[in-house]
Amino acid sequence: MVDRQNRKDFLKFGVVSAVSAFLGSQSSSGEAIAQTPSTDHPNVAIVQRYYQAYGRSDLATVREIFASDITWTIPGHHPLAGTKRGADEVLAFFDQLAKAQFRAEVLFLGGNDNYVVDVHRGWSNLGQGENIDELWALLFRIENSRIAEAINFPGNQHAADAFFWRTYSLKPIPDRLM
Fold first, then answer.
1. How many other C-beta atoms lie within 10 A of the C-beta of residue 22?
2. How far, in Å, are 35, 40, 51, 145, 174 from residue 71 at the CA level?
3. Degrees, nearest 5: CA angle 133-72-97
4. Does the structural domain 4-10+37-169 have CATH classification 3.30.2090.10?
5. Is 113 helix (H, G, I), strand (E, B) or coil?
6. 118: helix, strand or coil
7. Where exactly are the structural domains of the chain?
8. The whole model's pTM is what?
9. Euclidean distance between CA atoms 23 and 80, whole angstroms
10. In 3-state terms, what secondary structure has residue 32?
């Protein structure tokens, strides 16, 4: 496993160029429009404010930062996977993460006029054999100074699926079908 300092060094040198390519946008005709990402872009400040509010359990501010029709997509094949629609569903997902003692350490934020990319270390130390410690990326789409969409990209989808299946079992039938 790569230690934390090596991860940070990797991100310092490699992620900025990857984010530059990732944050490039397209016009309605499909032409590429170059946008230079910035770590001090106003949209980055929105995501930083979100993380600060979330860290304080200030759900009123989190709701204020979210667009009314926010979508939050968690890829994978596990009980928490799928697209959450609206603040209530997103906050219910966050509540489940808290039950697993899931933590995140932001390593990089960069943004432009439409998007913010977050790269972070995410981990949980529930108990023997139930831990995860991986790199994750989130792509936030910002509209009208609010988070309108977030898409999560796990560094290791297989490890994420395995962790979430170990941690969140489905209800037994017939409760699961109701």
1. 15
2. 24, 25, 17, 15, 29
3. 40
4. no
5. coil
6. strand
7. 4-10+37-169
8. 0.77
9. 27
10. strand
- Token digits of residue 1: 């496993």
* Alpha-carbon gap, residue 21 to 88, rounded angstroms: 33
Tokens read off for 27: 């016009």
Place of tokens 């994750």: 136
The C-alpha R_g of the chain, in whole angstroms, comes to 17
State how far Cα 134 lies from the chain centre.
Answer: 13
Q: What is the pLDDT of residues 1-56, one digit of tens each?
A: 445 555 444 444 444 444 444 444 444 454 544 455 678 899 999 999 999 998 88
Give the type of residue at 126. L
Tell me how far apart the alpha carbons of residues 143 and 51 are, in angstroms, rounded to a whole number.
17
Do residues 160 and 78 make contact, with C-beta atoms less than 8 angstroms apart? yes
Q: What is the mean pLDDT of residues 104-120?
A: 94
